[in-house]
Structure formats: structure tokens, C-alpha cells
Amino acid sequence: MGRGPSIAARKGAEDARRGKLFTKFIREITVAARTGGGDPKTNPRLRLVLDKALAANMSKDTIERAIKRGSGAADDASFEEIRYEGYGPGGVAIMVDCMTDNPTRTVADVRHAFTKHGGNMGTSGAVSYLFSHVGQIFLDAADGLEDKVMEIALDAGADDVLSEAGFIEVITTPEALEGVKQALIDAQLLLVQADVMMRPATMVNPGEHAEQVQKIIDMLEDLDDVQKVYSNADLEHA
Predict the structure, then answer these.
(1) Which homologous superfamily does the CATH classification assign to the domain defined by 130-200?
(2) Strand 131-140 vs strand 191-200: parallel, antiparallel, or unpaired?
(3) In 3D, which of 124, 117, 134, 118 has the Cα closest to residue 95?
(4) Which pLDDT tens digit goes with each residue over 26-59?
């Protein structure tokens, strides 16, 4: 019988993943503070990423340093926000949000991820019309919970509440996300995830191309300059 990875190897891989995640959080915190100020009480974008960073056990010292960099209290490279768009095999639309201090490097890395597995980068706007900019909250579904979530969320300004595959999904405008999120928390409901994202209008089943599409997404998400990857690929039913 073959032996699996050692504890040390598994820990090393987990540390590497955590390091990449923290790098993305630091960049997001820095840019959020730069664009909206360093006070999370008046900067919803900063407050949202701080919640995620703290949930991932990022230290408060690291968070404070990132806020200071973004607020101009410390020297730091200037990160630029760039979105790339393209298609994967099977007609799947993919959008890639990046933060980079070297756009030339980043576009080359993103293009390589697309082309290596049968995809193609497009021009700005090539696929973004297929997505909507929304706030999205997920809760674990339970008997009778959907009605309670719907009442609270809609009263707080949510646009829609959906239930599928063991989860309750609450859709809001980006501006209403924080208020709806807080109303659900105040009602002692446990949130699985809350974020502002690009939500596809419809899903596409890539069929026999599912593995290639997954490889493109995985390769993109592994790039240091990539913050988020959005796709309309229905990989669960491929």
C-alpha cells in the first residue's frame, strides 16, 4: 500500500495555501483603504475584507500594517486593479480580477493559464455582460429556515432569496450587502459566506471540457496577482 504525504509535507502545503490567501487579503485591504479610507466603519469594502481576514485567523498586526500602507501611512508599491475576460473550452465565460504592481507580468500569466488548457482571452467587455455585480450571502439550509431568512433579508433590503443544494442564497445590491448581513447576524443566523461578487445570469455545462475548464480556473486562482475568478461553468453537473 502506498503511503500518503507526510504530516510535514501536508503542513507545508497548507502553509503555502494560507500564505497565498493572506497575500490576497493584504492586497485587498491595502487597495480598499487607499480608495475608501482606513476606517472600516465608513468603508464597507474594507469592513468586508477585514471580516474574511479575521475569519482566516490573520493577525491584527498584519491587518493594521496593510491598512497603514493603503492609507499612505507607510510606503508600499502601488497596486492596480485590472479585470481580464475570456472563454474556456465549451463556451464557458471566465472573468479574472487582479491586483498587481506589474500589469505586463500579470497579463502574460493570465493569458498563459487560458491558452494552456484550451481557452482564449478576450477584450474588455467580452463576457462581463453575462454577469451581474451583486452582494451574495450563503447560509446552511435547514427545515423551516428559508422562510425566516426570506422575511429578515427582504425586510433589510435584499433583492432575492433562493434555496438550492443544501444552501440558502441571499442576493442583494453591493450597497445593501452590509445591512442585510448584519440583520441576519442580529437574528443569530450563522452565515457561511458573505461577499460582493460577479454572479452569472445563467450557467453553462461544459460537458466533456469540464476538466480543462477546472484546470484553467485552478491555474488562475493559484496566481499571486489574481484576487478572484468568476465563471458561469456548471461543473457540478458536467
Answers:
(1) YebC, transcriptional regulation domain (3.30.70.980)
(2) antiparallel
(3) 124
(4) 998 999 998 899 999 999 999 999 999 998 898 9
